[in-house]
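Pipeline run #58 for the internal structure catalog. This entry was flagged by the ingest filter as a single-chain record with no existing model, so it goes straight to prediction. Upstream metadata was stripped on purpose; only the residue string is passed forward. Reviewer on rotation: M.T. Logging verbosity set to normal.
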Amino acid sequence: MRILAGLVLVLACMAQAASDRVMPHVSGYSSTASGQYVQGTTEKWLHGLPSIVCWGDSLTSASYPRILAKLTGRPVTSRGVGGNTSAQIAARQGGRPTYMTFVGGRIPASGAVRVESFTVTPMGIYGKQVITGRIGGVEGELRRLSQETYEFIRSAPGAAVEVPVALPFIPDVGETDFEIAVIWAGRNNYDEPAQVLSDVRAMVEFLKPLNKRFVVLSPPNGNYRDEYMGAPNYHYFVEIRDGLRNAYPNNFLDVWQLLVQSYDPSDPRDVADYQKGIPPHSLRDDDIHLNEAGNRKVAEWVRDYLIGFKGY
């Protein structure tokens, strides 16, 4: 009965980011006799790739993308980085690049140059400490040396490039902009609803296929007094949830409320969490992050939405 109830809940809701890639043992999307998927250029630009990329923060860097790969039989790339705000996620994804200036106002002919300023700090203590990309037409690597120190080192020697003003650093995202995108952003800057919605919009607009294939997820509140239902900060989560649903009525999955509704009525702690309007204790590892059971539920809901409901 609980399985049936869960399915009804998902259907009701539906009616409203190389080493990160998980390769399943069995491909469920092959289209040739050899079992190897062949993606034509026209098809790619029209409908994108059948693989999935998950963009987000620590809620994404947990295990739900790994489980999603097993459930769908498709390659899934996890691009979750703990502590990232929506702006940092959008900068890594390419939808809203960070703008940088350099010490000395130029990229030298060879070697490294220190970064003087960012509009968005692209890396923190978690995740990769090197991002490949280009700035001012120069290919290279952006490296985080310490909390306050970053440098750009060009891939190959060449003519020095003057950078008198801030220029965008365009990250190398491979073909993730052609993949089916799962965007889960805003948990780490939930008190900036307008910023979260703007960053998500930039990420969606960055997707390349004519028929964009994506889903945006609502960030959940946590087991913090100021985030409980009726508490001072609860309205921020509602604003983000409602803003995403209004902006993407056909590409929105209310994971927040699906989690809240998935409490165990026989567990007093779960019942207490439900009354607070937060995801239940039985699905969490700590005050906010999900455990294996919680991540499995997210993966199942995303699979059902992308494959079952949208038919991607």
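catalog note: The radius of gyration is 21 Å.
catalog note: Confidence is low (pLDDT under 50) at residues 1-19, 23-38.
status: ready for reviewer M.T.
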